[in-house]
Amino acid sequence: MTVELPYTLHTRYASIATAWSVILTPPIFLNLSLFYGLWYGKPDLDRILVLTLPTAILGLFTALATLDRVWKLTQPTPLYRPLHAPRPALDIFQWGYFAVLAAISALITAALARNDADHDFQIRLLSLPTALLMSLVATLTLISLVLNVSGWRLPFRFGSVPAGNVLRPAVYYIVEDVVAVDGGGGVEYREAFCKRYESSAVFRRMMFELSVVWMLWFYVFAGVFAALVFRLPVAAVYAVGWAGPFPLVGGVAVWTVFYVRARLREEREGVVEGERAPLLG
């Protein structure tokens, strides 16, 4: 029997919209408007200061979003924390977020530390964080897929999955953690999501296939935009590097919605056929 998920988007629009506004607004609007407004509108300002301010503002928004998630996960009550966690603990999404954030921070710091005369190469380096993020997420996803296919069993609890279980595809952890914490689904959603994965072969295949598709597209997008950043005129690369991937990722997200609907329909039809089988026999 299919385990129903205690979650619907119709009651979560506000929380999801708030979370994604924090994610999308800084890089697309504040970051770009600050950079181009100061770089070309205030040529008398120190160039390093102009390069630093947009990323500093972005860092502030990132810190606020991170603090909100960490605060929810470290509450005394287990409302948001991973399953089977005996004490307040971060989830897999948050640890992965920290790893990616550390890599992007290292890139930005290294770029700002350069002593270039014309700042051309610095601007190109500072246009790479989105491409770097996609390549790192794709690589973490690839690792999860390889370990899942090989049947590698966890030597310790990994998020909500206890030790001794096979590592699950990356999309499984991303969906569980984002919906449970940012979407407000809580521990009830985590429990139902885990049971759904364990009880449905169609659902497991869907998580695997989604991980493969997003991994491949992220590798493609990362390679394309990294190449564009180093080939396009310097005046365009900051906008291309930071904002260019979002419409394409949005396209993959739209495809994902239709794909998931088709898979869930297939899952429901399989359940109905399974229930009819004894009567037909």
UniProtKB/TrEMBL annotation:
Which keywords fit this entry according to its UniProt record? Membrane, Transmembrane, Transmembrane helix
Q: Which residues form a coiled coil?
A: none
Q: Where are the transmembrane segments?
A: 12-36, 48-67, 92-113, 125-150, 170-189, 210-230, 236-260
Q: Which domain of life is it from?
A: Eukaryota
Which PANTHER family does the protein's record reference? AMINO ACID PERMEASE_ SLC12A DOMAIN-CONTAINING PROTEIN
Q: Write down what this protein is called.
A: Uncharacterized protein
